[in-house]
Design goal:
By secondary structure, the protein is α+β, with helices and mostly antiparallel strands. Helices cover about 50% and strands about 15% of the residues.
């Protein structure tokens, strides 16, 4: 709309510039011809007065005056007729002194026509570009009537025609308050009835003439990110609040109450346990932030997977304290191309989750095998499993099926999110099979390009590595 409003001014500016920049003097030849005609007419009148009579000369000059007056009147009428509709009528052909005047008018008309055509083409290009914008643009007058809208706005709000109130198309009650508020560059997020499930942001820009530009933008993804950010801050605050409260309470008790050595050691042990919980949370947050930022290059190197899994097996047995049967089944290439620290972190998280959610006496298995050219690194348990309604969200940050059990076992709710991102950084897939009260199997699928061939074995017999039993038949 602003482009359309600026068109007359732009045309006037261009037209005026062209006039000022190309001044041309009136040609002398029409002036000389007119002067010669006057001299000839006077000479004829003088000759009549000299050789005929004074009455004949008077009639000659009278007739000449009437003729000239009629010609001037005719051309004045023609120019007046043309000026009433100059774009639709051609200029009259000029004779005598009118010829140079009409020629200059014709030149100015051509200049104006060319300027208008150029501006019209430019406006068409601008309108075409604006119509291709994904954001809806609506120009409103001071009474909130629609003056103009692009294609996106017509599609979003169902706008048709002009000079209709915007409330006829956007029927949310909060829109009236939004338009009446005199806040510069104010915004409003609403759900449009024409696009259910999507969030749109209305932004209002005001001009000095009272007109308004209403911009409608789809911010569904941004709204989801904002909600995730808000949930993330709330979850972090909630997870940190519990250990801080415990630490503060026990520290206050140690400072204000006289305790025997056993009670004192018990309270200090609780403080240490809660501080370790906070440390795990901070470590997981830093790891997840590093993985999601993607700033660091993957430090790839050949990793001895059998040695890595063997070390993690012993670590898991120490964490379990013989409450579970933990086994390693290794049936694949010994080396993989990966970031050793990230791969270790992912498997440790899977083992820690398995230990936390598997009842005493249960079995946990670490399996490494090759299937369909992929390396499958799995952690299988016989624990409580995950109900079907929670499966789509278990890799979200801080999402936990049983918050009470997670807090009791010291979980942070970030383990599976970390595993998923580590797997994706290695161009792999993270899949799982689980059912309530039937255990779970979480698998990192590494592509064939990350599987390294084992070195050729020497000719003499070499005993098999201890602690790496073969894969059972039911898992092959």
């Amino acid at each position: 709309m602003s482009a359309r409003a600026a068109t007359p001014a732009a045309i006037a500016c261009i037209f005026g510039d062209e006039i000022r920049q190309t001044p041309e003097p009136v040609p002398l030849s029409p002036f000389l011809r007119s002067l010669a005609a006057i001299v000839l007419a006077v000479a004829i009148g003088a000759a009549l007065d000299l050789y005929a009579s004074g009455n004949a000369a008077a009639w000659w000059f009278g007739a000449l005056f009437v003729g000239v007056a009629l010609v001037q009147l005719i051309y004045m009428v023609r120019l007046h007729h043309w000026s009433s509709l100059p774009r639709n009528r051609a200029l009259p052909a000029g004779i005598g002194p009118w010829r140079p005047i009409i020629m200059r008018l014709a030149r100015f008309v051509r200049q104006e026509t060319d300027a208008r055509n150029e501006l019209g083409s430019e406006l068409e290009r601008i309108h075409a570009a604006v119509d291709r914008l994904p954001d809806g643009l609506v120009v409103l007058d001071r009474y909130d009537h629609v003056l103009w809208a692009n294609d996106a706005a017509e599609h979003l709000h169902g706008i048709f025609g002009t000079r209709r109130p915007i409330h006829h198309f956007i029927r949310q009650p909060e829109l009236a308050r939004f338009l009446q508020a005199n806040e510069p560059d104010s915004t409003l997020r609403i759900q449009l009835s024409s696009h259910p499930g999507r969030t749109h942001e209305l932004r209002l820009h005001r001009s000095q003439g009272g007109q308004k530009l209403l911009i409608t933008r789809d911010v569904t993804d941004q709204a989801k990110l904002d909600a995730m950010r808000s949930d993330f801050v709330a979850n972090v605050s909630r997870e940190i609040r519990t250990p801080i409260t415990v630490i503060a309470g026990f520290a206050d008790t140690l400072l204000t109450v006289e305790l025997d050595e056993d009670a004192r050691r018990k309270y200090l042990g609780s403080i240490l346990e809660q501080s370790q919980t906070m440390q795990r949370l901070v470590d997981d947050l830093l790891m997840l932030s590093s993985l999601e930022s993607g700033d660091e290059t993957l430090a790839e190197e050949p990793v001895d997977l059998q040695r890595l899994l063997g070390a993690l097996l012993e670590e898991a047995r120490a964490l379990s304290r013989e409450r579970h049967r933990i086994e390693l089944h290794f049936d694949g290439p010994r080396r993989v191309l990966a970031a050793a620290s990230e791969l270790e972190c992912a498997v440790r998280n899977l083992l820690t989750n398995a230990i936390r959610y598997t009842p005493d006496g249960g079995q946990i298995s670490i399996l490494w095998r090759v299937q369909d050219s992929e390396g499958l690194l799995s952690v299988r348990d016989t624990g409580i499993g995950i109900p079907a309604e929670h499966i789509p969200r278990i890799t979200e940050r801080f999402y936990r099926v049983d918050r009470g059990r997670s807090r009791a076992t010291g979980g942070t709710g970030l383990g599976l999110a970390i595993v998923k991102r580590i797997t994706h950084r290695h161009q792999g897939r993270f899949v799982f099979e689980t059912a309530s009260n039937r255990g779970s199997t979480f698998t990192m699928c590494l592509p064939a390009t990350r599987l390294l061939a084992d070195p050729a074995a020497p000719r003499e017999a070499v005993p098999d590595d201890a602690g790496a039993p073969s894969l059972p038949a039911d898992l092959s």
